[in-house]
Amino acid sequence: MLVDTILQTKGVVVHTLPETATLTDAVATLNAHNIGAVVVTNAGGTIIGILSERDIVRQLGRNPSAALGLPVGQCMTRGVVTCSRDTGIAEVMERMTRLRIRHMPVAEDNRLVGIVSIGDVVKHKIEEAEHEAEVLREYIAS
After folding, report:
1. CA atoms of 111 and 70, how far apart (whole Å)
2. Which strand ranges, in their side-by-side order, compose the sheet holding 37-41?
3. Helix, strand or coil, per DSSP, at residue 9
4. Is the whole model's pTM more than 0.90, yes or no?
5. Which residues on adjacent β-strands are paired with residue 51?
6. Helix or strand or coil: residue 40?
7. Per residue in 8-40, pLDDT tens?
8. Alpha helices of 34-117 — where are they, by DSSP H?
9. For 1-142, where are the E strands, in sequence order?
10. What integer best gives the mean pLDDT of the chain?
11. What contacts 24+ positions apart, CB below 8 Å, involve 56-62?
12. Which residue, of 12, 106, 121, 135, is most buried by count of CB atoms within 10 Å of its CB?
């Protein structure tokens, strides 16, 4: 199975912010959309970073009184790990586990086309296992 399978189910909406937005803006976006990370893009839509709840908490731990006024560009993770629509779900799961990341933007030509979370991947794997179990039950019963 490919990442595109997940995107077909969940959709391709990805919430983004410019690097000039503040952490206050980022927190508002995360809360408004009930998400755990926001992709940071430049004016041309190119991925330049990702800001997760973990990044925000680290900033709050360093300087609680000033953190929320910091620009996203100063707090985000650069060198974003991405995948493509054609990447296998097993590969995405392995990379997320090994790198200890929970969100992976889906990119084509460095342009954002979707995002998958570890929750999306686990949900898909559970559905796949349930389907296999049902097929086996039907096979045994016949």
Report:
1. 26
2. 16-17, 37-41, 47-52
3. helix
4. no
5. 38
6. strand
7. 999 999 999 999 999 999 999 999 999 999 999
8. 53-62, 72-75, 89-99
9. 16-17, 37-41, 47-52, 103-108, 111-117
10. 93
11. 56/23, 56/26, 56/27, 59/23
12. 106
Check: CB of residue 73 under 8 Å from CB of residue 62. Answer: no
- Phi, psi torsion values for 63, nearest 5 degrees: -150, 80
The two tokens of residue 34 are 């009930």
Domains of the chain and CATH, by start: 3-141 (3.10.580.10)
Residue 49's identity, in one-letter code, is G
The amino acid at 27: V
Sign of CA dihedral 115, 118, 104, 49: positive
The 10 Å CB-count burial string (b at 16+, else e) for 45-60 is eebbbbbbbebbeebb
Q: Read off the amino acid at residue 84.
A: S
* Rounded-to-integer distance, Cα 18 and Cα 15, Å: 11
